[in-house]
Amino acid sequence: MQVVLTSEEANKLKTGACVRIHGILTQSPGTEQSKELQAQHVEVLGESDSTYPLQKKYHSMEFLRDNLHLRSRTNIFGAIFRVRSAAIIGFQNFFQTNEFFQIHTPIITNSDCEGGGEVFKISANKKKNIKIEHTKDGLVEKDFFGSPVYLTVSGQLHAEILACAMSRVYTFGPVFRAEESLTSRHLAEFWMLEAEIAFMFKLDELLDFVESCLRDTTKHILNTCSQDLEFFNQWVDKELSTRLEDTINKPFIRITYSEAINILSKANKRFEFQPVFGTSFHSEHEKYLATDYCRGPVFITDYPKEIKPFYMRVNPDGKTVACTDLLFPKVGEIVGGSLREERYQKLVKRLKEFNLNTEEFQWYLDLRKYGTIPHGGFGIGFERYLQYITGMDNIRDVIPFPRSTNFCKV
Amino acid sequence: MQVVLTSEEANKLKTGACVRIHGILTQSPGTEQSKELQAQHVEVLGESDSTYPLQKKYHSMEFLRDNLHLRSRTNIFGAIFRVRSAAIIGFQNFFQTNEFFQIHTPIITNSDCEGGGEVFKISANKKKNIKIEHTKDGLVEKDFFGSPVYLTVSGQLHAEILACAMSRVYTFGPVFRAEESLTSRHLAEFWMLEAEIAFMFKLDELLDFVESCLRDTTKHILNTCSQDLEFFNQWVDKELSTRLEDTINKPFIRITYSEAINILSKANKRFEFQPVFGTSFHSEHEKYLATDYCRGPVFITDYPKEIKPFYMRVNPDGKTVACTDLLFPKVGEIVGGSLREERYQKLVKRLKEFNLNTEEFQWYLDLRKYGTIPHGGFGIGFERYLQYITGMDNIRDVIPFPRSTNFCKV
């Protein structure tokens, strides 16, 4: 807000000061704002030191990342974190309207296998929490939980437990990946929205649901944060508004993995990695499919079972699984989902194909042994979605306190 | 729901099976339910194995804790987790109505000092993530983040960063304590709702706000989960309904720490530990104050500064701090809050009194150096609050996947 002060009063104020101003709100003669405050009484609640790092000029994103504790005071980070809050509420509203229960899956887990070993291990910090026990293997150090524990990479398997009891559940929480990665798309700690839905029989039902979820949430943000989105459109990405309008107005495209491979191999474009049937897409392939070819969100479905996790439901062809990755222009994969393998014997077979210990997964198998339910679910990478909504290039700039390789400041 | 079947159909169904039943919904002649389903077509979607551990009888809480992956299928845990979901939404509604932004504070932090060392340490699991670096101290092992990191014990200090930029913020996330504790009130992983409010000048404003927050959320639960609360009142705690009605209708009592010590020392009751001015309350003292003396929620305010953390605002008397613990009958402390010390020099002094390294807290001090703001905040122990709402004795039974000493199942 523009405040009109005498120059004497204005000279007393430093950038970064905290002030309380009494005055009269009037129509502004200026073109930059509709209203302004004619100050009558100016009170400084908190002085600002002259070493204040933020000045009334452009600061680079790198500089602001070095001042994590102050960057939320800039106009761009104010806008980003308001949109972040609105996105949370948008998702909440959607799931409440659709009669879901919100649950909490655990952060500390005893499984390190699902994420291929790229997990963080946890130990009690103090020596006094370590106990030495006599076992048949001699003296063994025993930690807090009595067994090795890790930070979760996904709440999905636990969410399935509750979906098989309460029908429709979602969880919103932090997940962790110990991947050494310095890309603008990866964080070691990020937030995931994961939903599990009982009595889901067909993959298309899942796709319909994901599409509604993202459309309704995006609409909520457009309705409640229009000024912030205008700001991003002006300063961050001139095509943002058009892209978001398209997202809520046009149906998402749906193609199979085979069709996608076909499109890529016919593409009039040189890829660093040739697209090969039976391998995962590289980020350049995802970008081509969503940004160049489809020019909008695209569901890729029915991947070969070898390149997807054990829990996805095997299709009648025996070769592919009933799954989807949703790719968005510029950002790439935002959602991953599938029907879950609900048939006991087929799940045992899949676990063995992946050399996973069936005993460790007995609780997961039990869900199929005692009243199994056809079901499916999906996970939304919350920060990736926010990158799409704000147009921000670097994922570290859409979360207040980013954590990644060699980066844990404040 | 009661379903009326032929005995032939009924004999085909085992406890735990997943069924789809088509039929006609009718008024029930029975007294236990108002409606029943007259089955026309019964379809078994998922058979249940005869080894299904849950039977149509009473199971102890201990037995159900040993079957974490199935206990959410019982009526009591269904009710608990529905109430848990309603409580989340109740809090969300309250904070949205009061124009707060939801934020996320980090789970991985680089500080281990605040919780007195009772923290979990994190390391990358794989050898490949460990690097050996040449430094002036010789070869040093370098971990994923380049410095030791821990699981957060509270999001408060980080929330203050955002309150000093966005005015009113709240965060809802998991926090961790590596306390070896087998009591029914402690978890190693639990959820906290933490709010920070800029431009808060008096402790009473904070108390008013906490009281509204808990009253509105409790009302929301009473309005949306009446059947589940009736169930708890009938089977768990016969005084629950009365206690909850009182909570939303009567003002919370407010007394100072000095007054509380006075009440305790005059109490016609033998305590295991004598209440002594200048020491923290024991759980027997909290119980006496809330359950016996006040018979309802009671705010204890203005504790001696020596027994409270460094960040609480020192009162004009120089001896106490502007803080509160809110005690609830049966459960004890549910909320802790305070005005935050916003005066730079006084905060430096407090850090030194606690032998804390001012350099490590420079970012926190900066919030006072650059436009300091009188502010306050509080944290609600989400599972403790749920114990109060449901009447459940053990905190492990109000969270889907409890983690505590030697307990990390499923």
UniProtKB/TrEMBL annotation, chains A, B:
Record key words, sorted: Aminoacyl-tRNA synthetase, ATP-binding, Ligase, Nucleotide-binding, Protein biosynthesis
Taxonomic source organism: Gigaspora margarita
Keyword Aminoacyl-tRNA synthetase: yes
Molecular function via GO: asparagine-tRNA ligase activity; ATP binding
Annotated protein name in UniProt: Asparagine--tRNA ligase, mitochondrial
SUPFAM superfamilies the record matches: Class II aaRS and biotin synthetases
NCBIfam families reported in the protein's UniProt record: asnS, PRK03932.1
Entries under InterPro entries matching the protein: Aa-tRNA-synt_II, aa-tRNA-synth_II, aa-tRNA-synth_II/BPL/LPL, Asn-tRNA-ligase, Asp/Asn-tRNA-synth_IIb, NA-bd_OB-fold
Gene3D superfamilies named in the record: Bira Bifunctional Protein, Domain 2 (3.30.930.10), Nucleic acid-binding proteins (2.40.50.140)
Gene Ontology annotations for the cellular component aspect, listed alphabetically: mitochondrion
Enzyme Commission no: 6.1.1.22
Pfam families assigned to the protein according to its UniProt record, in alphabetical order: tRNA-synt_2 (PF00152)
Domain of life: Eukaryota
PROSITE patterns: AA_TRNA_LIGASE_II
Top enzyme class: ligase
Domain Aminoacyl-transfer RNA synthetases class-II family profile residue range list: 81-400
Family as reported in the entry's similarity comment: Belongs to the class-II aminoacyl-tRNA synthetase family.
Biological processes, Gene Ontology terms: asparaginyl-tRNA aminoacylation
